[in-house]
Hints:
Blueprint: E1 9-12, H1 14-27, H2 32-47, H3 58-67, E2 77-82, E3 85-89, H4 95-113, E4 115-123, H5 129-138, E5 142-147, E6 168-174, E7 177-184, H6 191-200, E8 209-210, E9 216-217, H7 220-224, E10 228-229, H8 235-250, E11 273-280, H9 283-286, H10 290-302, H11 312-324, E12 326-329, H12 330-340
Parallel strand pairs: 3-4
Antiparallel strand pairs: 1-12, 2-3, 4-11, 5-6, 5-11, 6-7, 8-9, 8-10
Helix pairs in contact: 1-2, 1-3, 1-12
Amino acid sequence: MSAPTSTPMVALTLAEVDDLTFRALTASGVNTANARSVTTSVVAAEAEGVHSHGLARLPIYCAHAKVGKIDGAATPTLTHPRPALVRVDAADGFAHPAIDLGLPALFEAARSQGLAALAVTNSYNCGVVGYHVERIAAAGFLALGFVNAPASIAPVGGTRPVFGTNPIALAVPRAGEAPLVLDQSSSVVAKSEIVVHDQRGEAIPLGWALDQDGAPTTDPKAALNGGTMVPSGGHKGAGLALLVELLAAWLTGASLSIDASSFADNAGGSPRTGQFFVAIDPGPLAGPDAAGRLAHLFAAITEQEGARLPGQRRALARVRTAAEGVRIPATLADKLNAIAG
C-alpha cells in the first residue's frame, strides 16, 4: 500500500534490510544463531511485500529481547513423543529457531510415516506463517500451519477478546514451480497491518477493528489500545479462530490466547504461544498423476479473466522488490538505526 506524501520514506535494498535487522537484534541481546533465524524471516517478509511482519515488527522484537520478554539466547529442545509427532520447546525464545530445529525432524517423520506433525510450544511471534509452510512444501509435502496469538478477537455476540488473530496457512508443492501458499488470519486483517498504519500515520478502513467501547473505529491507536479485531466472516471467522486455538495452543501445551501476554507491549512476561504444523506426503494418496491433476485444478482458476491463485501477489512482489528494494517510514529507519547502534 502506498504511504501518504506527508510521510517521509527511506529506500533500502534487501541486503540492507538483512544487515539492519541482524545488527538491531544482536545489539538487543539476541545471540547470533537466533538473530540469523529471525533476520531471514524478516527479509523474506519484506521481499514479499508483507511489511507488517518485516521491519515494522523489528522495534518490538528488539524491545522484548532487551526487557527479557523474549529470551534472545534461548536454546530450543526437540523430542519425539511418537514416531509421527515432533515437539519443540522454544524455551521462551523466538519461534523461528524452534521451527528451524523442528522442520528436518518433521520431514524425516513425514517421509517415514506418510503424515507427521510438529508442535512448537513456549514460543513467541513466528512472523509470516506462510514463510514456514512454504519451506515444508518445498521439501515435497502438503503443509498446514496454525498459530495462536494473544487474545484480540471477541467471540460472535461477545465483547471480551478470547481468540488471537490466529492465522492459518496452507502450502502445496508444484512440479517445476514454487509452492502455492495461502496465508490468512482469522480476523478481517492481521493486527500487524494496523501497526503499519499507525507507523505511517494512516487511518485504517472501517470494518477492521473496534475501539475499547466496542464501536467501529478508523483510528489505529484506538484499535491497538484496548480495542478488538473484527473476525473475518463473522461466525465463520470466529469458528476458524477456535479451530486454530485448539491446534496451536491447546494441543501444543502453549498459552491459550486469553492467557498469553501481549506481543505489543513489555508487560506480562513471555507470551509462551504455540505453532502447529502438519506435513503430508501426497504421493501415496494422490497417486502418480497428482501433479497433472493439481495443474488442471489451478488452470481452471487462472484461465478465468480476473481470477488469480493465492500467493501470486507475493510472487510479483518478490520480483519488484529485488529490482526496486523496499520503502519504510523515515521515523522507523531512524529508530532501527538507533537500536542497531
